[in-house]
Amino acid sequence: MPDKFYIIQNVDRDGEKLPEIEIKEVTITGKKRIFEGLQQWRYDRMVYNVKKVYPYSRIVRNKLKEVNDSLTRITNEKERRRYLKEVEKQVFKDYEDDIRNMTITQGKILIRLIDRETSTTSYELIREYRGKISASFWQGVARIFGTNLKDTYDPAGDDLYIEVIINEIEAGRI
């Protein structure tokens, strides 16, 4: 017994009835590069890292939208600060362990993906919601680990492979 069944429809084409099967859309992205040795290992590692941090960048995007929507309804400055502290505590409670267990490379990718998803750098987000002093402190910590919270996402340049990997993830191919 076959695993898949196809429904064949008779379609009228120029007065002639022809069988037709509906198939899924196919996206052609060009000839896939075949990496050798170390290059293949680096690409596989990049796929692993992007697959690990991409969901967190989506969480940041959704959480930021939720927070901004809530802040538009809160007019009292004291209540806004209280709300932001509450959200910060909840986010730390939910995701601190996961973030702490990321590698430096995964952290760098996450910083770029946050910019991709929110159109705002991590530094700008911290400065907007926590203040300049806090943003400067965390920028200093990031610099110690060899990264930069002001990094932006460049899908046609430095981040081309990340963009290709994300498109493959969203298409369900990896």
Secondary-structure topology with pairs:
Blueprint: E1 8-13, E2 16-21, H1 38-73, H2 77-100, H3 104-118, H4 122-130, H5 132-144, H6 160-171
Helix pairs in contact: 1-3, 1-6, 4-5
Walkthrough of the structure:
- With 174 residues, the protein is mainly alpha-helical.
- The protein has one domain.
- Helix content is 63%, strand content 7%.
- The chain has 6 helices and 2 strands; from the N terminus they run ββαααααα.
- Strands 1-2 form a two-stranded antiparallel ribbon.
- A hairpin with a 2-residue loop joins β1 (8-13) and β2.
- α1 crosses α3.
- The protein is extended and about 75 Å long.
- The model has no long low-confidence stretch (mean pLDDT 84).
Short description:
With 174 residues, the chain is mostly helical. The protein has helices at 38-73, 77-100, 104-118, 122-130, 132-144, 160-171, and strands spanning 8-13, 16-21.
SSE run: EEHHHHHH
Total domains: 1
Helix/strand structural class: mainly alpha
As residue ranges, the low-confidence spans are none
Terminal Cα separation, in Å?
29 Å
Please give the number of β-strands: 2
Number of helices: 6
Oligomer: single chain
